[in-house]
Amino acid sequence: MSILEVKEVSHSYGSSRSFWRAPKEVQVLSDVSLSIDEGTCMGLLGTSGAGKSTLGKVILGLEKPQKGQVIFQGQDLYTMDTITRKRIRRDLQVVFQDSYSSVNPRLSAEKIIGEPLENYERLSPAELQRTVAHLLDMVGLNAADMKKYPRQFSGGQLQRISIARAIALKPKMIVLDESVSSLDMVNQTNILNLLNELKSEYGLSYLFITHDIRAAYTISDALAVMEKGKIVEVCHDKNEVFSSQQPTVKNLVASILPEHPRNRTLTSRANFSANSQ
Ligand SMILES: Nc1ncnc2c1ncn2[C@@H]1O[C@H](COP(=O)(O)OP(=O)(O)OP(=O)(O)O)[C@@H](O)[C@H]1O
């Protein structure tokens, strides 16, 4: 069953007016349709500027599309009333790429993680602290870390703080926009493992936006590929990417195969899968 359905969404941005030229609309999404099953991860791949982040924003309700629908848990995000929207919004969270700029540097980890809880739940100060301590434990950090400030964490640790904040309200789905792209290989693997554990333990669904096919393959059940504002391929089983004849997908796959054609065999595919686990 789908948790999220994007139906024929089109969106454009208005370019800024200049003295010489009239403002021009730039079409960024054209008739995009996508469906994510409950408890699964959809990897959204594509080259820079393909429209991945814009689609993420449309799904999060941050960018109202000119055309189309976003159905989350059976309800249209853009036509529902404000109260329903607030209720639904807690089930849909986001983790961005750059944790340093997506958290307030003046707030402690306790405040950062506790913020959504304070907005949505009436907890006593002691309950709030206990919940934050539990969330820190869930993402592999210590309760004592709640007193620290963003500058006292590494990039990987801060990304864990962002994940703790995203799961604080027990959401159904998280949009992860290049969430591991700024991390080194070891931290990437650790965060991907953590996301995988949370997914299987709590039945979370993810939209994993990335330009990195390796990371997408590691965590996703299904893969979609975007190019110039359109979805050009959907692989309901991620392994279908290896047999896709779509040129952009073939290029993406080729980018992770060994350089020498002699080595581009099924063994390389097996190695890729093994290395990605
Ligand atoms: N707020 C905005 N105003 C005007 N144009 C925008 C805005 N945000 C994005 N764009 C343009 O829309 C296009 C798609 O951008 P988007 O960030 O969605 O792509 P992307 O696939 O996520 O790329 P990247 O991987 O580089 O982040 C780009 O040409 C970008 O310049």
TrEMBL record:
Domain of life: Bacteria
Keyword annotations of the record: ATP-binding, Ion transport, Nickel, Nickel transport, Nucleotide-binding, Transport
InterPro entries xrefs: AAA+_ATPase, ABC_transp_ATP-bind, ABC_transporter-like_ATP-bd, ABC_transporter-like_CS, Nickel_NikE, P-loop_NTPase
SUPFAM superfamilies given in the database record: P-loop containing nucleoside triphosphate hydrolases (SSF52540)
Domain ABC transporter: 4-253
Keyword NAD on entry: no
Any Pfam family the entry gives: ABC_tran
CDD domains (UniProt xref): ABC_NikE_OppD_transporters (cd03257)
GO molecular function, one term: ATP binding
This protein's name: Nickel import ATP-binding protein NikE
Species this protein is from: Planococcus shixiaomingii
